[in-house]
Amino acid sequence: MKKTIFTPRSFTRKLLIPLMIITIVFSAILMGCGGPNKGPEGDLNTEITPDPTEKVVVSPSGEARVSPENATKPEKLDIQIYDDAIMGNLKAPVTMIEFSDFQCIVCKRFHLEVFPEIQKHYIENGKVQFVYKHYPVYQIHQNTVKAAEASECARIQGEFWNMHDSLYKNWAKWQGEEDPTPAFKELAAEIGLKQQRFNDCIDSEETLESVGADFYTAEKYSVRGTPTFIINGNVMTGFKTFEELSEIIDAELK
Fold first, then answer.
1. DSSP string of 40-57?
2. Looking at residue 101, what DSSP letter applies?
3. d(Cα 59, Cα 30) in Å, to the nearest integer?
4. How confident is the model over 38-71, as pLDDT tens digits?
5. Domains, the chain, with CATH or none
6. 3-class SS at 244?
7. Is 183 helix (H, G, I), strand (E, B) or coil?
8. Does 227 sit behind a cis peptide bond, omega within 30 degrees of 0 on the bond before it?
9. pTM for the whole thing?
10. CB 84 within 8 A of CB 53
């Protein structure tokens, strides 16, 4: 049976499901991008403060729960890396995968505040390879799919990370636009991409399918929030500080 192709039409069809289902999806996905606990910019801080005798376990589904110290640890995820945006040493002892959404304000906060520290202390010295995978929360973020496409078009020209940085730093220019494509084309010009090649790419169905491949990988492994981090198979969902992430990375380096 042929797999459903990830297209704008499939988005529209999903948006027409009953309000009850929308609410369920909304609450599940917003583990990283909404909810009652607000951070400095109004984004969700999913930090849990359990009883000192207990520990927090994050399951492969992305659900955080408090478990006794002797509870069975969640199974590690083994996610294939293929045709992805990768930064760092391909033979690094630690692989850190992020499922992210360019329009998610929590993801934006992570990439502007925490990621530079991860890059400085772990990626640049060859200890970590960082893998970016798309998980566009299109149900609530109208421009996230197109932003992902823009980054993929930059990746084809070897400039994914420059576009990645530009999308977050210039977030206000495109996230609220009815049609963000002109803004993305402007950013492409600013980082020196071949303009016509970028323009043709961002209008291509193949680019959309490339984003969809990551989306379906996330669905396969029950990723439900952005950002979701998978560090050598260990799953963490929601905003994490450098200290929280480095604790997991350092444990994997031992």
1. TTS-B-------TTEEEE
2. -
3. 16
4. 332 333 433 222 333 333 333 333 333 333 343 3
5. 8-253 (3.40.30.10)
6. helix
7. helix
8. yes
9. 0.73
10. no
